[in-house]
Amino acid sequence: MNQLHVGLKRNVKPRSKPCLFIHDEVPDIAQTAIFDPRKHSLDIFKDMTARRARELSELLYAAVPEGANTLTVRNGKRALAPLLRDARRFDTIKTESEEVRAMLDDLLFIPELRNALCGTRNVFALKKHTVILARLDRAELGDFACLVLGFLLIQLYKGQIVIPDLGFYGRDAHIQLVREQRLIAGVNALSELPLQLRNAVVLMKDKYAAGALSDDAETLAKYAGLIPHTNEYNDFIQHSIA
């Protein structure tokens, strides 16, 4: 199922059914699996394909501030993808590409990332039929580490994804989650999202707004098929921004 929650008062919670929930804080829920990057590693290269390697390369470069579509970045993406396809661990990848070497150095410099990417013990099982809570606290780990870990978890998990702050994690590559009907997400404002992903999520059938910006409320009203200046339209706007 797809759901979009918009506004400062949005309330996106983990489902009682199997899902992957990613947030800075996670609720205390019985009979759930909790991913802790300090304790767990991820089996990233199992069943790696050329497509997955290309997508992962794109996402890793999207996590860095200079990850714009420059020639240097494009060359780095192209060089990294085949290395990921053929690798078994991040810390054994050998390359003469300066761009890729810099990316790998950034990934392996952070202890939590190095453990999650290269650890061989306590490999976390991303079981599709389990409620998984991933506590990725940006205040503790930093934005870069949380982005990378979030991207990896999203790519590896094949079930329902729940992300209360898609404005932080969302990239155009995640449009695939919308197509597959498995994204429940929240944003403070639609403008937080890259354009293609924004266009995809506003087409979701189930959209909710609470404490939304007036511009976002009007956008949601338009996609709900409401006629401006009618009572129904005005009530929708007031309810969305309240």
3D architecture notes:
The chain has 242 residues and is an alpha/beta fold. It has 2 domains: 3-41 and 126-241, no CATH class; 50-118, no CATH class. It has helices spanning 50-62, 71-86, 98-109, 111-118, 138-141, 143-156, 166-169, 175-179, 195-201, 214-223, 231-241; strands at residues 3-6, 19-23, 33-35, 131-135, 161-163, 183-187, 207-209. A 7-stranded parallel beta sheet has the order 3-4-2-5-6-1-7. It is globular and about 65 Å long. The model has no long low-confidence stretch (mean pLDDT 92).
Give the N-terminus to C-terminus distance in angstroms: 26 Å
Secondary structure: number of strands? 7
Give the class from helix and strand content and strand pairing: alpha/beta
Domain module tally: 2
What form results from the Cα inertia axes?
A: globular
Q: What is the oligomeric state here?
A: single chain
Radius of gyration: 19 Å
Spatial strand sequence of the major β-sheet = 3-4-2-5-6-1-7
Q: Helix amount, in percent? A: 40-55%
Q: Quick one: biggest sheet?
A: 7 strands, parallel
- Which stretches of 5+ consecutive residues score pLDDT under 50? none
By DSSP (H or I, 4+ residues per run), the number of helices equals 11
- Element-by-element helix/strand order: EEEHHHHEHHEHHEHEHH
Averaging pLDDT over every residue, what do you get? 92
List its traits.
single chain, about 240 residues, alpha/beta, 2 domains, 7-stranded parallel beta sheet, about 10% strand
Task: Provide a brief overview of the structure.
It contains 11 helices and 7 strands. The chain is α/β, with parallel strands linked by helices.
